[in-house]
Amino acid sequence: DLVIDSLISLRPGADRLEVQATVYNEADDHRLRVLFPSGARTQVYLADSPFDVVERPIALRVDNHLYRELEVETKPQQSWTAVFDGQRGLAVVSSGLMESAVRDLPMRPIALTLFRGTRRTVMTDGEPNGQLRGVLTFRYWIVPLAGEPDRSRLCALGQQLAGGLRDVQLRPEDIALHRQPTALPPTAGFLSLDGPAVLSSVRRVGEALELRLFNPTKKQIQATITLGEPIGMARLPTRAQRVDFEGRPLDRARAIEGGAVTFRLRAKQILTVRLS
């Protein structure tokens, strides 16, 4: 028997169901998927990919039988897949699960692949450990939709699920020794991004910071970078400059006024910004 134990959580004020599924796998040579009927009346769906959100048709091509390598319904995703119409829909956000599909069935179910147990990959002599026997744990979030989703928000949920939360616990005697004289604000950070852009990376380059963001939409957008606390830096950056993927300047640096700087991004554009 294949035993699956799912812990389903609905937090106060949340608009999603959080699922942690534990699979006790004792079977070989099989694929395990979770199906989520959406009820959406549509012919296309969305999925995120590196630096983009792509729209794909649900149905396979009508001449699929003529191709030497047949198209299959499963496609790659980065962290989420969404299917919707003008009134309803569903998104499934996950971490480390890179294969999904929307099946060409009346209820338009999202199919999320949890794992594949295989004994031999093509062009190899075989890998016994590919069967994935044992206890496997997966996490995914189910997000109901009332229409077209906010693409950048779903990307942020994927990052949140992958990154998780970290906390520090102190004993009463520790608090007496390490309590700071001033109170911290409810929220704080060294930078924030406002607008429909997605922040994909932040890295230190010498005394500067390089941020990479992208526009997941089909229209021009504005993204505002707001600086907060100078974590790991002597002081906050005062200038911002566009650079290419190798860090070479693309234009003149401009001053950061009021702790914030705004950039325009074309449809599907990837932008790298250096703060110094």
Describe what you observe in this structure:
- With 276 residues, this protein is mainly β.
- The chain has 2 domains: 3-149, Beta-galactosidase, Chain A, domain 5 (Distorted Sandwich); 189-275, Immunoglobulin-like, CATH 2.60.40.
- The chain contains 2 helices and 19 strands.
- The chain has helices spanning 151-163, 172-178, and strands at residues 3-9, 17-25, 31-36, 44-49, 52-57, 75-76, 80-84, 89-94, 99-102, 110-116, 134-145, 191-194, 198-205, 208-214, 221-227, 239-243, 254-255, 260-265, 270-275.
- The strands form 4 sheets. Strands 1-2-11-8-7-4-5 form a 7-stranded antiparallel β-sheet, with helices on one face. A 5-stranded antiparallel β-sheet has the order 13-14-19-16-17. It has a 4-stranded antiparallel β-sheet with strand order 3-10-9-6, with no helix packed on it.
- The longest helix has 13 residues, at 151-163.
- The chain starts with a strand and ends with a strand.
- The relative contact order is 0.14.
